[in-house]
Each structure stands twice: as C-alpha cells, then as structure tokens.
TrEMBL record:
Protein name from the UniProt record: Cytochrome b/b6 N-terminal region profile domain-containing protein
Organism classification: Eukaryota, Fungi, Fungi incertae sedis, Mucoromycota, Mucoromycotina
Transmembrane annotation, as ranges: 44-64
Record keywords: Membrane, Transmembrane, Transmembrane helix
Keyword match Transferase: no
Keyword Transmembrane among UniProt keywords: yes
Any one GO molecular function term: quinol-cytochrome-c reductase activity
Cellular-component GO terms for this entry: membrane; mitochondrion
InterPro entries per record: Cyt_b/b6_N (IPR005797), Cytb/b6-like_sf (IPR027387), Di-haem_cyt_TM (IPR016174)
Sequence ranges assigned to domain Cytochrome b/b6 N-terminal region profile in this UniProt record: 1-68
Alphabetical GO biological process terms: mitochondrial electron transport, ubiquinol to cytochrome c
Length: 68
C-alpha cells in the first residue's frame, strides 16, 4: 500500500487544473501506471471490507460485552 501510494504521489499533481491530467498521465504514460493505480484502489477497498467484516464478527459474537 505504501509503495503504490508513493509511486502514485510521484506522478500526481494536486491542483484543480492539473489533477485529472496527472491521473491520465499515470494511466497512459507511466510504465504499469494503470496497474499500480488499480492495485492501490482495490487494496484500500479490500482493507475496509475486512475491517467491517472484523467489526461485524465482534458485534455478532458479543465481544463488546464485559466477561462474566
């Protein structure tokens, strides 16, 4: 996650005028930029999916209750 984020940050321009153009540059001109961008996005999505799954398991098993 950190490696893909740093790689994307090296090519991203966070201004209103150039943000979309910099994403297009990453997708088209950077070697495997399309794969790095999608890997970064999907890793983040799966991370939050597993966090919510873990929270749901805790709620289902009642792990928030004080032990007797």
């Amino acid at each position: 996650k950190v490696a893909t984020g740093v790689t994307l940050a090296m090519h991203y321009t966070p201004t209103i005028d150039l943000a979309f153009i910099s994403v297009e540059h990453i997708m088209r001109d950077v070697n495997y930029g399309w794969m790095i961008r999608y890997l970064h996005a999907n890793t983040a999505s799966f991370f939050f999916f597993f966090v919510y799954l873990h929270i749901g398991k805790g709620l289902c098993y009642g792990l928030y209750k004080v032990p007797r």
